[in-house]
Amino acid sequence: MGNRTAAEATESKSEHLPLDVPTMRETAARLLAEDAELPTLEELETATLLLRGMIMVAIPEVETAAGKLPKDDVPRACALACVGEAHMRLRLEPSNGTLPAAVAHAQRLARSVRALTDHYVNLGCES
Predict the structure, then answer these.
(1) Domain ranges across the chain
(2) CB 25 within 8 A of CB 114
(3) CB-hemisphere CA count at 13 Å for 107?
(4) In this structure, how many other beta carbons lie within 10 angstroms of the beta carbon of residue 50?
(5) What is d(CA 86, CA 111) in angstroms, rounded to the nearest whole number?
(6) Contacts of 46 by beta carbon, 8 Å cutoff, 6+ apart
(7) Taken in order 35, 41, 43, 46, is the CA torsion positive or negative?
(8) Can you give the pTM of this predicted structure?
(9) How far is it, in rounded angstroms, from Cα 27 to Cα 63?
(10) Exposure string for 61-87, b = 16+ CB within 10 A, e = fewer
(11) Mean pLDDT computed over every residue of the chain
């Protein structure tokens, strides 16, 4: 009887974990709230990295869910448009090195996170 390595065990049993929608929405809301305080540069860098990671994780989930719908389905088209916009926002950087530009960039990422979670829920992925 052969021994299985940890890598083999992991590959054969890939667990799928759903997105943590409440945490993603809460993270986005911190930057999008009307009464949000201006973050420090360090807080902003952390938030931007976190939002980018959330987008990278959410995109394939939304794409997969949308792909299960008929090609002429309106929710599918809307979800895939959102995915396209999220991809575009991942490629962009703040327009200049100022704090206001960095905040605006992070807010755009936060709007993408919020939109992706909305599509994720609307496509029936969250139980």
Answers:
(1) 41-127
(2) yes
(3) 14
(4) 19
(5) 9
(6) none
(7) positive
(8) 0.84
(9) 22
(10) bbeebbeebeeeeeebebbbebbeebe
(11) 87
